[in-house]
Every structure is written in structure tokens, then in C-alpha cells.
Protein: 3-hydroxyisobutyryl-CoA hydrolase
Amino acid sequence: MTDFLRTDVRGRIGFITLNRPKALNALSHEMIRAMAAALAEWRDDPKILGVVLQGEGEKGLCAGGDIRYFHEAISAGRTDIMDFFTDEYALNYTIASYPKPYIALMDGVVMGGGMGISQGATLRVVTEATRMAMPETAIGLFPDVGGGFFLANLAGHLGEYLGTTGIVFGAVDACEIGLADVVLPRGSLPALCDHLAGGDWQDSEAVLDAARAFCRESLPPPGLAPGKLAPLRDVIDAHFGLPDMPAILKALKLEARCEYSGWAEETEDLLRTKRSPLMVCVSLEQVRRARKLSLADELREEWLMMRCVFNLDGRTGAEGVEGIRAMVIDKDHKPQWQHPSIEAVKAEDIKRFFDGDRHGADNPLLDLGK
Structure:
């Protein structure tokens, strides 16, 4: 279907393998379309009882979308880039609502778009090598692919913290906060696939039960790093539950003199010096708004937001283009953000990202979930 994605059927299981390891299996438009086609074909095929998603190579499942393509397309003045997001967000919804077990093997790097094709899974398997994040604010974007929705549904204000800072965390944290279901040694992933492919399953429920039982009965992964988020839950909630980013930063400055001084100093520095001021503020608002939205509505919202972030509406400035240039294309790591600081971001700058009509006739995701 594409050089960068393989689909095959073993036994009664459909396997989707992202096959672009040199680019950390970053999702191209062709890969997204190929995934959607395979899932559509298998949905109504009675011979297929479940689906397994995996990534080729040692480095990980998927580092995100093909951001080099985003930069090239926008720089060339192409507006068809929105077709990429239309198809990607529709795929995210398809996965979350898939009628058969969809098992995501979230090994290695799982970030951005990799989270989008995993978080809607029926069973999310992580390993000792898992490195998970929604790091979009570092390149002038926001946590899309349904990120607003699954971050908003975390306990307390973890969603605001993870969405604005984009910090990386491992398997234990992922399971403890609800972004993964089970930890399996990465060396056992092939055996899990063989077990599912070789079983004489009678229905989809049996496939899911077998996968869960295999994970429960496996030995713990070696070298599993302890979680770092659980001890910080109260202080995260106390700070990231404040009304806006300036208030959060002020509180972090005060906290730097107290018990969690190391965390507070690191977090304030990250937000001030390594993230887009505008997109940090937009992402905070996004997660909070998403608490009142369904996944379908959040994806429709994100489609409108993405038009703004690449300035396809001609009103907001192309923050994402500059971020990708600085971090990925030129690699000078000196993005010229639109705002010199978080305090310089005005309420109207944030509001522009949310004043579109999610249910407008021009939204290509209008029929999502209907």
C-alpha cells in the first residue's frame, strides 16, 4: 500500500506495521491513508477479529507527523496541507471507535501523531523503552490528533501540565496516569504477536482476553524506571489549575523557594525559554475547553486551530512554520516567536484559535461520529 507501511494478516489478526524507521516512523499522508484503508477493509471482514499496531525498528512506534512536509508545503504556498489533517483526524476517530480490538504496541518513542494512533486503542501496551510525550509547543504547534481530548480527561490538571510543557515520561507514568494500560518487556512483543496470530479465537472478545492474559502472565520488564509524576500530582494541580499562564509562572517562581524548588525552576525555565509563548497559552485553553467536548468535537476544533497555527486564515502568523524551521529544518534552535514572552500574549491572540464554527459547513469533519 506504501513503502512506509505494511499490512498483513496472520491467522485472524490484521497487523499494521509503520515502516519508516529512519524517520522514527513519522506519519506521511500516504501512511495515514493506507492505515485508514486497511481498517476500513478489516472492519467488516468476519475473518479478522482484531488489529495490532506496531513500529519497525528499535527506536520506537512513531515520533509524530511528518513535520518536514508541513514546512515544505506551507513554504510553497500550498493549502492542501489541511487534507493531511482532515485524514489524520478522521483516522484518530476511526481508531477510537473501531468495533474490533485494536492493540497498540507503544514501544520506544511515542509522541504527537504516534499518540494519536495509539490513545484510542482498546489495549495500549508500553515497554521499558517507551518515551511518551505531546511536545508540540516546542515547535509552535499544539497537542492535536485528539490530544486536547485525552489530556483533558486525565485526573486533576495533569493535562494542562503535559500539554503546555511537552515533557517526556515513561511506561510507569503512562500507566499510572491513564495513558497506557499495561507494561510488557519489549523483548516479549514478538511473542505476543505470535500468540495472537496463532490462536484459534472464536470472537474478538477472546482475542482481547488473550492479549490481556499474556501481558499479565509475563515477567516484569528489566530496568523499568520508576514514575516521576505521582509524587508531583499535588504540586502540579496547585500550579496548573491557576487561571492563566502568567499566574502559573508567578506561582512557579514562588515555589522555587519552597519544597519543590527543583521542579518549579525547571518547569518555569522550560516554559519561558524552550516553548512558543503563544502556543503554550493556546494549549492551556485548548485542554480546558476540551473537558466539555466529545472526541469528535475536539477533532473538529483542532482542525480549525491548525488552520490558524499555519496562518491559513491570514490572521494569526505562522507560528508552526517558524518553530519547525528553527528546530528541524535549519536546526539553529533560535525560533523567532511572535511574542517575546508569555506575558506578552493577549487574550485576543488566544481567542482567534477558538472563534471558528466547529459545525460550520466548511469543516470537512462535520459528519465525524454521526
Q: What stands out?
A: The two ends are 28 Å apart (CA to CA). The chain has 16 helices and eight strands. The chain has a mean pLDDT of 94. The first strand starts at residue 5 and ends at 10.
